[in-house]
Amino acid sequence: MIINQKDSDISFNRDLFKDDNFDCDEFLLEFKNKVDLETLQHDLALYSKEISTEIYDIINENYSDFIDFTNKLSEFENTYENFNNPLKALKNEIELVYTSINNSENSNKQYLEILINDIDFKKLENILSKIMDQCEKLFIALIDHLRSTPSKTQIFTDHLNVLLQIYSYLNRYSDAENILATKMVGIDLGKIIDLENLQGPPKYTCSTTERSLSGLETIYREILVFVSEKCDIFIHQTSTEKCGILNGISGFNFLKNSIWPEIVHLFKVRLSDYIYSCINPDTFHSNYVATLVFLDEFESHFGSRKEVLEFRETPTYHEFIDKPWNLTIYFQIRFQEIAGNFERVLLQDPFAKCERSSDINEKNLPPYNLLSTMCMHTSIQTCWDRRQTFLPPLSQKFWKLTLQILSRHRFWIEKDFIADIENYTDWSTLTLGLLVDIDLFIAQLPLIYSTCIEPALSESFDNLDSSEALECRLKFNDTVCQSTISEYQSGVIPHLKKLLINKLLVNDPSNERCFDKIFDIPKTYRHTKRTPQNPSDYVNELVRSFEKFVNKISTGLMIDGAKDGEPIKTEILSQALRSFTIKYGAKIKELLSNVQRTEESLMRLKKVKGLLTTPNNPDNALAQISPITNLVTDESKIKLQIRIDVQSYIKLMKGFELNLFIEDNSFEALNDLVKE
After folding, report:
1. Exposure of 425 in the CB half-sphere (CA atoms within 13 A)
2. CA distances from 320 to 273, 294, 461, 669 (A)
3. Cβ(391)–Cβ(384) under 8 Å?
4. If you count DSSP H runs as helices and E runs as strands, how many of each does the chain have, helices first?
5. pLDDT at residue number 619
């Protein structure tokens, strides 16, 4: 009861008297030093008049209700007295038998049977029948009063408590639960769960999104309001674990046995043809999500986790959440939408450029270059979109679909992309764009998991304990993030880089012709008077070719304004320079080997012709010094030219200042080939 504040002030706070633990002695002890007793007495008298006036006003405003409730209470008192005496008699007889049995430890079995036979069970049955009839009438009277007057006074609560205790003593829990179901729950819920409310205009709006609630959401909301306002007192009085109640009457479960069966029955009879259809998957998803939210709020009325788990094991629960919802058909429809759209992109226009749009910007997608990559990203997001697609019971299926999408993208790159890409004039630009896309996607994977997948999986792990849920999350995270990243980095990315390097640089026909010029060096210096001074022309050609490759890679990585190509550029150029230098070294090694074999062949030929110096022919020795000396000089000049070329190559390549030479021993290995 709310007491209006008056203009006059008093020396104490009126709310002190509303406290259930109010103590008169403590009150006097607190205020004796603040005000004198006469002032305190005057203030208490004034407060008493305020309360009396308030009560008088309330009675006048609700006079008819008070008279009606008083009459019902009067009837309840009379009825209570009518079966109170028989109950006492029954209790006395039972206690007599119990005492006799306890005192007969040394008596024989026949004596006990005589005592039991003395009890008139028929009389007891008649007494119990009368008691139950009277209890039913009183229970119905209390229910009628509750339906007509939502307010619940302490007197009402006390009488309800007495009735529930009687039902509990007599082990007639189901009788009370059935009366509540038939006399109130079924009637009131019948006005809520009907086709008119389902298909009617919106009544409420969502407080968070400000959207209008659907017809089904409206029905669920009104059911929860009914449970909170009309049924909460029954739940409250019979809960032993909720809200700190220690003296609740155990044995009843009005939520599970009175309210829930009526909800399931009314939905089955009236709305089953309208809310379970898969024809429109968006509506199906909306209805199912609304049902899960409703169940979560409904379960919050239970007093313990144990009661919730017991509730989920009931046949009516499975009848409501499992049987009518054809989740298999729903997933097949979503599979065709998601996988079908991704497959069409890969087959019809796999190399289409990705154009930025407002829709893409709203989804906060990275600046992908190819439509195929963006479609893969959005397809995975769609799988785990809790607002439009994802449903907790289908977590395993959507997880499998996610892995299939990732696998399909890799297969397309390894088989279709690489096979068809050379048919396009801008194939190198497309390949670079795909490399950047993969790098962006790999960087996005942990974010996709944490913002899309993990929140959805959390709903699926509600029934698991914390350790099992953690294990499942780690397993899923390892599969989608670590394994996928590893497969891209160990297979797809190296393959694409190798394709670019080989086609554009290492195995390019113009570079092959340039490498072949290395073998013209011996022709320049054998049997001639020329001496090496400058690098060969082919060195500049090789450097210019690599510079052209650098420019092509740099230009290709700037498509669509992508700013994430620098790491890819560094990796490609580093690998390209290493491969290019290794091939150059192989050519140098082959040339030196040819020069060595030529020298050995000439020496054997001279020896056969007797042109070499012998001890018995000194005159002939002078004549042969020049040819031998000339031969050695030619080899030295060739090797010197090669050394000049290699040193010039290394110097020019380092001039690019690409920071590619850290931990790279390809130049060192090349230089070792021409050391003296």
Report:
1. 0
2. 14, 12, 20, 74
3. no
4. 33, 0
5. 44
Q: What is the DSSP string of 618-673?
A: HHHHHHHHHHHHHHHHHHHHHHHHHHHHHHHHHHHHHTT--S--TT--HHHHHHHH
**Pair 337, 280: CB distance under 8 Å:** no
First to last CA, the chain: 108
Whether the Cβ atoms of residue 553 and residue 572 lie closer than 8 Å to each other? yes
> What per-residue confidence (pLDDT) applies to 359?
53
Q: Which amino acid, one-letter code, is at 170?
A: L
**Most confident option among 46-55, 133-142, 663-672:** 133-142
With tokens 């290794």, the residue in question is: 582
Q: Round to whole Å and give the CA distance between 204 and 224.
A: 14
The model's pLDDT over 426-449, given as tens digits with 9 standing for 90+, comes to: 788 888 888 889 989 988 888 888
Question: CA Rg, the chain, in Å?
Answer: 47
Is residue 650 within 8 Å of residue 671, measured between CB atoms? yes
DSSP code per residue over 221-245: HHHHHHIIIIIHHHHHHT-SSSTT-
Contact 278, 330 (CB under 8 A): yes
Q: Which residues pair with 205 in a beta bridge?
A: 212
DSSP H helices in 193-314: 195-199, 215-226, 232-237, 254, 260-270, 272-275, 281-299, 305-312
Tokens 């009825």 belong to 79
Q: In the 8-state DSSP scheme, what is residue 251?
A: T
168-179 tens-digit pLDDT: 888 888 999 999
